[in-house]
Design goal:
This protein is of the alpha/beta class. It is about 40% helix and about 15% strand. Helix 2 runs antiparallel to helix 9 and helix 10 runs parallel beside helix 14.
Length: about 375
């Protein structure tokens, strides 16, 4: 049995090595490293895959968040509501622009932002809701969009962990993660379900006007070279990364299926352990992470037990954003978010990637069973 890894990027690359190497070689031969053909082609292909009108590449998922906030005209002092139980980038990009992140609690079973808590946090200064589709599953977009319409708020979907996931509305309509709000963003960080070989990101929208503004912001605020109509940034998806992503996009559905197969194995093996809660599905899950909940007093001991057997695991996230030193203020201290705080003490992510072998899954799950027996 091969050594178990949390993410096996080399194993995935090895299977598509000839295609990726050729794509990289083609870019080098043409030497169009900035805004080359591959960038435009990848953007068009991903927009088609997601069923949206526009995809605009940029340098990272964090940049994509900042550009989205700027494109919607959010100003210093404006409030945005986002989950506390997520990676800091969603709040960090807002704070850099002088926006005020207002943290909402999570749903205990899906880990996603709780719509009921969103509505309780809306004020006269609120301008946007930023749901994060955590671990590979969509937040409750039907309720979130209804709240946004009721209060005339923007919706920015952070789908960095859920590209390829979809949400089904009560009408039966299905929509891809990142395409339901005003703007969707994603990251192509190497460990993502669709990852490049460095940093990269993208924004999605159905609005032509927003797409044009996003492109301008990402390119120093210019439509025509050397004529700068608005303040922008320098954030581009480089051509080499786009070429790699073109190859991997063609494999994405098979990658997602491999993740679901591994998740089903975990479910079957761990579903009857009383001290563990397996992931609940309320939308089409793509398992960026397979995250279980463990009785809080046993979670860290289980992690050490796995480590002793050379099985990696991760705690996403050990401290909610509202308790992070960078965001701790009198207001956040007084704003207790009990579900988010409890999740940080009980979640544990198991190895999850496209190259997991059945023997590895058997060893991981048997090791967990042995711990609880």
């Amino acid at each position: 049995m091969n050594k178990i890894q949390m993410v096996d990027l080399y194993g995935q690359y090895h299977k598509i090595k000839s295609e990726v190497d050729q794509a990289i070689s083609n870019v080098i031969e043409k030497s169009a490293f900035i805004n080359g053909f591959e960038v435009k082609n990848f953007e068009a292909q991903l927009a088609k895959y997601l069923g949206t009108n526009f995809c605009i590449g940029c340098a990272s998922g964090t940049d994509a968040l900042q550009i989205a906030y700027m494109a919607l005209g959010l100003k210093p002092g404006d409030e945005i509501i986002l989950p506390s139980f997520t990676y800091i980038a969603t709040a960090e990009a807002a704070a850099l622009l002088g926006l005020v992140p207002i943290f909402a609690d999570s749903e205990p079973s899906t880990f996603n932002i709780d719509p009921k808590d969103i509505e309780s946090k809306i004020s006269a200064k609120t301008k946007a809701i930023v749901p994060v589709h955590l671990f590979g599953q969509c937040a409750n977009m039907e309720e979130i969009l209804n709240i946004a319409r009721k209060h005339q708020l923007y919706v920015i979907e952070d789908t960095a962990q859920a590209l390829g996931s979809s949400y089904t509305f009560s009408t039966g309509k299905e929509a891809q993660a990142g395409t339901m709000g005003d703007i969707g963003i994603t990251s192509f960080f190497p460990s993502k379900n669709l990852g490049c070989f460095g940093d990269g990101g993208a924004l999605f929208t159905k609005s032509g006007a927003l797409a044009e503004k996003i492109r301008m912001i990402a390119n120093h605020g210019q439509k025509q070279k050397y004529y700068h109509d608005i303040i922008g940034v320098n954030s581009r998806l480089d051509t080499l990364q786009a070429a790699i992503l073109q190859v991997k996009l063609q494999k994405l559905d098979s990658y997602l299926e491999a993740r679901r197969k591994a998740a089903a194995f975990y479910d079957q093996a761990l579903g009857n352990i009383a001290e563990i809660e397996i992931p609940k599905r309320v939308s089409k899950h793509v398992f960026h992470q397979y995250t279980i909940k463990v009785e809080a007093n046993k979670r860290d001991l289980l992690k050490e037990h796995l480590k002793a057997k050379e099985i990696p695991s991760m705690i996403y996230y050990p401290l909610p954003i509202h308790l992070q030193k960078a965001f701790t203020t009198k207001a956040t201290k007084e704003n207790s978010l009990p579900i988010a705080e409890n999740l940080s003490k009980s979640v544990l992510s198991l190895p999850m990637h496209t190259e997991l072998e059945e023997a590895q899954l058997e060893f991981i799950t048997q090791t967990i069973k042995d711990y609880f027996n």
